[in-house]
Amino acid sequence: MKQNTSKRSSGYLLIGGMIGVFSQNAWSEIQPYNMPEGVTEISHKVFDLHMIIFYITCVIGVLVFGAMAISLLRDRKSKGVTPAKFHESTFLEFLWTAVPFVILIGIAIPAAKVLIEMEDVSDAEMTIKVTGYQWLWRYEYIDHDIDFYSVLKTSRDEIYNRSEKNENYLLEVDNELVLPTNRKVRILLTSNDVLHAWWVPDLALKKDAIPGYINQMWTEIQKPGIYRGQCAELCGRDHGFMPVVVRALPPEEFDAWVLKQGNENVAKSEGISTSTLQSNKTMAETKASSTPAKKNQKNIAAAVEPQTITTQ
Ligand SMILES: [Cu+2]
After folding, report:
1. What average pLDDT does range 306-310 have in this prediction?
2. CA-CA distance, 100 to 114, in Å (whole number)?
3. pLDDT higher for 132 or 88?
4. Residue 221 contacts residue 40 (beta carbons within 8 Å)
5. Which one, 22, 63, 92, 153, has the greatest CB density within 10 A?
6. Where residue 283 falls among pLDDT bands split at 50, 70, 90?
7. Distance 185 CA to ligand 1 centre (A)
8. Model confidence pLDDT, tens digit, residues 241-259
9. What is the CATH number of domain 126-259?
10. 146 CA distance to ligand 1 centroid (A)?
């Protein structure tokens, strides 16, 4: 009996040691594969929730599979163990209903708090309307009269392996969504054709863009930088070719950018809205052509900003 206890405690020590070594050395290696912590208060909260729930599931996993392993080894038939005979144990039934219920409530309370906070778009300092198109995004700065389209910048040569793929392959656009840091920005989200989803992991923002319906979300970025995302709703052939790129600038730089854009973009966008629709039509018509993607890329790019085509 004494031997058994010492065996058991050395086993616990081994497991504890393994967990300790793992958490110190491997954590930094695993982190890139984990959910990003992000650059907003909400994204940090989402990350913390994710980790808490991950640890809870780890503990449950260890307990359940540990109990199974122990009983498989210790109480096996070959050892002459006779099964316990109990039926309709009220206490056990109460226990295995109550314990998961308590765990779920324990998870639901902090999760609901974060969800409510995520949905609270009140007191936003500025509003941006995002519209999904097959296969590009349109950004309208409601308070600043800025309006532009954002199209994939990766060249078709890279896509078809005719040239080396760059670091931001399929995650780069001609016109980035420029946002200020430390300002609450409300984002209205809709679509012009099919379901899309606007997703930027570092901002913990991901919502469907639904035609005929306006979704809303908000963000307040804490750190200047470039944050990349993608369309996250299968929206047709070029679903993988409509990335989202957000450039977060400090407030002063953002204000300077707004001044610079000014009326120039308003004038530009008025000419674009009809030509983009035409280009989408052309895209559908050219589906059967031999290099449709290349042709379509040209069409969209031409519609958006003829002078910036350098990708072909
Ligand atoms: Cu899409």
Report:
1. 36
2. 22
3. 132
4. yes
5. 153
6. very low
7. 22
8. 999 999 999 999 999 999 9
9. 2.60.40.420
10. 22
Query: Which residues line ion ligand 1, judged by CB < 5 Å?
Result: 196, 231, 235
Question: What's the one-letter identity of residue 282?
Answer: T
Q: Where are the domains of the chain?
A: 34-118, 126-259
Alpha-carbon span 16 to 102, nearest angstrom? 27
pTM of the model: 0.72
Could you tell me the distance, in angstroms and rounded to a whole number, from the CA of residue 161 to the centre of ligand 1? 23
CB 172 within 8 A of CB 308: no
Q: Say if residue 209 is exposed, middle or buried (CB neighbours under 10 Å; 0-12, 13-18, 19+).
A: buried
Check if CATH label 1.10.287.90 holds for domain 34-118.
yes
Please say if the pLDDT value at position 5 is more than 50.
no
Residue 174 to residue 114: CA distance in whole angstroms: 34
* Cα-to-centroid distance, 231 and ligand 1 (Å): 5
DSSP secondary structure of 12-73: HHHHHHHHHHIIIIIHHHHGGGS----SBHHHHHHHHHHHHHHHHHHHHHHHHHHHHHHHHH
- Long-range contacts, stretch 51-56, CB < 8 angstroms, 24+ apart: 52/107, 52/110, 53/107, 53/111, 56/103, 56/106, 56/107
